[in-house]
Design brief:
Layout (H helix, E strand, L loop, with lengths): L1 H5 L3 H23 L2 H17 L10 H26 L8 H24 L3 H12 L4 H8 L3 H18 L5
Length: about 170
């Protein structure tokens, strides 16, 4: 089948499409919980396979190559969607499943970036920010815990927040 598709045989490609369309859709949907993303990824993946059919490798199975193309296609779709959200371009699609999958992925990525930025703060600013913002301790409680004055706590928070705003400017 691989060789026939490489040669441009439409019937072999349709057979391949019919054989793997549902499997690929289910696989993508299982990981994204988005009908739109699953359908878009599947369609674009088969289009790419057909357009690049002469370059298909004979070392790997057709299904392996299809799933690799699908993975990179899905990543591209997610990146494009992320860029749209950051730049605030209007969405042409507003499918609930897509939005919830994107929101979950974005929140996870955003949290990683924020935690990395906090980790890069000076140690005392990290500690003060963690105690006051994450552990919800008051300035007075944090000051007692760290054996410094409440005014120093305020200074560390101000500096930490200022630094985080510079580092995480793309969130604002």
């Amino acid at each position: 089948m691989l060789q026939k598709i490489r040669e441009g045989d439409h019937d072999s490609f349709y057979e391949f499409y019919n054989l793997f369309h549902a499997r690929l859709y289910q696989y993508i949907y299982k990981h994204t919980r988005s009908e739109w993303l699953a359908e878009e990824t599947v369609q674009l993946s088969f289009i790419k396979i057909w357009e690049q059919r002469e370059k298909l490798s004979t070392e790997y199975g057709l299904s392996t190559q299809l799933f690799r193309v699908a993975k990179s296609t899905l990543i591209d779709l997610l990146r494009k969607n992320r860029i749209r959200e950051v730049v605030r371009l209007p969405h042409s699609e507003s499918v609930t499943g897509q939005n919830s999958a994107m929101t979950a992925i974005e929140m996870k990525d955003d949290l990683k970036q924020v935690m990395k930025a906090i980790h890069n703060l000076p140690v005392m600013q990290q500690e003060v920010l963690t105690q006051t913002r994450i552990n919800n301790l008051s300035h007075k409680e944090t000051a007692a815990l760290l054996s410094i004055s409440p005014k120093t706590i305020e200074t560390h928070i101000t500096r930490a927040v200022r630094r985080l705003k510079k580092t995480l400017h793309f969130f604002l």
